[in-house]
Design a protein that fits this description.
The chain is an alpha/beta fold. About 45% of the residues lie in helices and about 20% in strands. It has helices at about 1-25, 45-60, 75-80, 95-105, 110-115, 140-150, 165-175, 185-195, 205-215, 260-275, 280-285, 295-315; strands at about 30-35, 65, 90-95, 115-130, 155, 180-185, 200-205, 220-225, 250-255, 290.
Length: about 325
């Protein structure tokens, strides 16, 4: 009897081992849903949609993007945490998601427990802009104005914990200026009000802001990366403009519910990296100020963990109140 049990166990193990590659080979056999936990029109929306089309072409199955904005990305992310871990529901992570590990106390999921990182997608810089009515012509003049009139300059963001919020908080942390956060329910309303002059300043993605800068609707003062943006070659980095140590890069990437089969996750990572490594993708995205991110699953997992730790420290240092 014992020998029979061992034989059966060994046979099942062999079947499972043989079945794993088949699962990856067959995936996907039906449409895959990608939840973007932000409103339409932003950089996550843009690049996820582009990658979805590439994955459809590679697999023969639709990768359908759905926007689920709300609560600084928490609503859409929570929806995926509850989804079946079968590879047919994915979510887009970003620095906002990693910020919310500390800032959103009442969320129903834990990022590092309830999700498995699949593959990063893209990174791009932000640009600090002001309404033309603001007298500052460069970052130094803006900081001087903020110090002369503390608490009078407002900056817009797409909500607490968003990239646009935390990039401004990092600037506050390094310069000691007192500027007031005006959170919106999405980036569209924030952009409308910076153009309309209801708020004086905003940090936003380079691809989103370039048309408004070119049209004279806003004035660009600095970009947030380590080097100047190809789209805005005359605009200095924040560090060049006089704030040593400042760097903020928007990023986004794929994750799946925890317990998603390992072969499926591995296949997605391989396919996404293969697409991102193509010269035509790198060239096209580079022209709009974005850089494809290629990482192994282990590298991406370590990256996400590092982002969670980084933002936890910044939130504590700036005494930023949790989002209720």
């Amino acid at each position: 009897m014992k020998r029979t049990k061992h034989v059966v166990a060994a046979t099942l193990a062999a079947m499972l081992a043989c079945g794993a590659p088949t699962l990856a080979q067959d995936y996907p056999t039906r449409p895959v849903k990608i939840i973007v936990p932000f409103g339409a029109g932003g950089p996550t929306d843009l690049f996820t949609r582009a990658m979805g089309e590439e994955l459809k072409a590679a697999s023969g199955q639709p990768f359908i993007m759905e926007n689920r904005p709300g609560a600084g990305s928490v609503i859409g992310t929570a929806e995926v945490a509850r989804a079946a871990p079968d590879g047919y529901t994915l979510v887009m992570l970003s620095s906002t998601t990693t910020v919310n590990e500390t800032l959103a106390e009442k969320k129903t999921y834990s990022l590092l427990r309830d999700f498995v990182p699949v593959a990063p997608l893209v990174r791009s810089d932000l640009v600090l802009v002001v309404h033309p009515s603001v007298p500052a012509k460069n970052l130094g003049e803006l900081l001087a104005l903020a110090r002369a009139k503390p608490g009078t300059l407002n900056y817009a963001s797409s909500g607490p914990g968003s990239n646009y919020h935390m990039s401004a908080e990092l600037l506050k942390n390094l310069t000691g200026v007192d500027i007031v956060h005006v959170p919106y329910r999405g980036s569209t309303g924030a952009r409308q009000d910076i153009v309309g002059g209801q708020v004086q300043m905003m940090l936003d993605s380079v691809p989103s802001m370039v048309p408004l800068i070119s049209g004279g609707n806003v004035r660009a003062l600095a970009v947030t990366g380590k080097k100047r943006s190809p789209q805005l070659p005359d605009v200095p980095t924040v560090e060049e403009a006089g704030v040593p140590g400042y760097e903020f890069t928007f990023w986004t990437g794929f994750a799946a519910p925890a317990a998603t089969p390992e072969p499926v996750v591995a296949k997605l990572n391989t396919e996404i990296n293969k697409i991102l490594a193509r010269p035509d993708i790198r060239d096209a995205w580079g022209k709009i100020g974005a850089e494809p991110m290629i990482m192994t699953r282990a590298q991406y997992k370590a990256f996400v963990e590092g982002e969670v730790d980084k933002w936890a420290k910044l939130i504590k240092a700036n005494n930023i109140a949790p989002v209720q």
